[in-house]
Design goal:
CATH topology of the largest domain: Rossmann fold
Oligomer: single chain
Largest sheet: 8 strands, mixed
Order of helices and strands: HEHEHHEHEHEHEEHEHHHHHHH
Number of strands: 8
Bound molecules: nicotinamide-adenine-dinucleotide
Structural class: alpha/beta
CATH architecture of the largest domain: 3-Layer(aba) Sandwich
Strand content: 5-15%
Length: 342
């Protein structure tokens, strides 16, 4: 996966990941598996300890599957250094990825500390999923060095990372973040404007909203709604995307279907009542053993491991289908020699 010899990278200053929770620890795994040594920081010692133990087993799974370009899992594990000392983590880091709690004030306080210790030339990227990049940058003394890198869970498997401009982000900042992502085998998608939800979460939310509305209307069971998604357009998505699929169906047909259906699709501006009720009842999903489904008899560790194995299978499908196929008048068609090796 790595196209740069790891010993060159070993000698260079390490990128830092600030926040070792669900996302930060998996971003560290993605980097290590891609050949890039990183430092993982958290303010909470337990979070760091827990991350180290989880990363140990995640790397084992990935190397067993041949995802890492080395067979020795210890080499990959050794690429992650752990610390609770922010100055040591960010002091000479060329790139700092912030993945702390989704809270404006927490992030602003962390940025103040980072700017105190980091080099003036460092690039700072936030993993926020819902906060405005422009607004988060407003407290920074170097907003031009700040952008979003929006990773998706599980970050060590999902291939695309959105790289998001804020109003004052310099092109060089986005280029640096995108180059880092490519160097570890990720597939950056640049979001040119800071809009809520960026690209993927907006589309995903539109779909989720309609799925909840359908469940509420009683048109089908939760199992059947999920099966209809997984076995129809969801089944095609890694291969065809959404817009590309329009070309395959015929845009005339696509236009007609949208014209007929758009007026029928739920336009509510708050989550469906059935979702609100589940949340109010504490049925928060796997972590609470009950959500839409009953998970009380399920071993959650095994569930996660099986999920990851299936997602790794899908990663192969995504890589095989990456980008629209070559066509003579397709400006985005790419020569197969442009494909990354991983
Ligand atoms: P999390 O709660 O699992 O982890 C947050 C970590 O931040 C914790 O370990 C906490 O100790 C640490 N933290 C809190 N204050 C800190 C500080 N002052 N300094 C250093 N560390 C501090 O959260 P998460 O799910 O990993 O989310 C992190 C970020 O990633 C959020 O911005 C979130 O919106 C975003 N995100 C999450 C997901 C997801 O699926 N969980 C997906 C995409 C983006």
């Amino acid at each position: 996966m790595a196209d740069q010899p790891s010993d060159t990278r070993e000698a260079a200053p390490r990128p830092a990941i600030v926040g070792a929770g669900t996302m930060g620890r998996n971003i560290a795994v993605a980097s290590a598996v891609g050949g890039q040594p990183v430092t993982l920081f958290d303010i909470d010692e337990d979070a760091v300890r827990d991350a180290e133990s989880e990363i140990g087993s995640t790397v084992g799974t990935l190397t067993d599957r041949g995802v890492a370009d080395v067979t020795d899992a210890d080499d990959v594990r050794d690429r992650v250094a752990y610390t609770t000392d922010l100055a040591a983590a960010v002091g000479d880091a060329p790139l700092i990825i912030e993945a702390v709690t989704e809270d404006r004030e927490t992030k602003a306080a962390v940025y103040e500390e980072i700017e105190r210790h980091a080099s003036a030339s460092a690039t700072l990227a936030t993993n926020t999923s819902s906060l405005s990049i422009t607004e988060l940058a407003s407290s920074l003394s170097r907003p031009e060095r700040f952008c979003g890198t929006h990773w998706f869970h599980p970050a060590h498997i999902v291939p695309v990372v959105e790289v998001v401009y804020g109003d004052r982000t310099a092109d060089e900042t986005v280029d640096t973040a995108a180059a880092f992502l490519e160097s570890i085998g990720k597939d950056p998608v640049v979001v040119e404007r800071d809009i809520p939800g960026f690209i993927a979460n907006r589309i995903q939310s539109a779909m989720a909203h309609e799925a909840w509305a359908l469940l509420e209307s009683g048109v089908a069971s939760a199992e059947d709604i999920d099966r209809a998604v997984k076995g129809t357009f969801g089944f095609r998505l890694p291969t065809l995307g959404v817009l590309e699929k329009g070309d395959h169906s015929g845009l005339d047909v696509h236009h007609k279907v949208l014209s007929e259906l758009l007026g029928e699709i739920d336009r509510g501006t708050s989550p469906a009542a059935v979702l609100t009720e589940l949340v109010d009842e504490g049925r928060h999903g796997v972590k609470a053993e009950r959500g839409v489904y009953d998970w009380s008899e399920t071993d959650s560790e095994r569930l996660t491991a099986e999920r990851d194995q299936r997602l790794l299978d899908q990663l192969e499908v995504y890589r095989a289908a990456r980008g629209p196929p070559d066509a003579p008048d397709n400006p985005d068609s790419r020569d197969s020699s442009d494909e990354p090796e991983s």
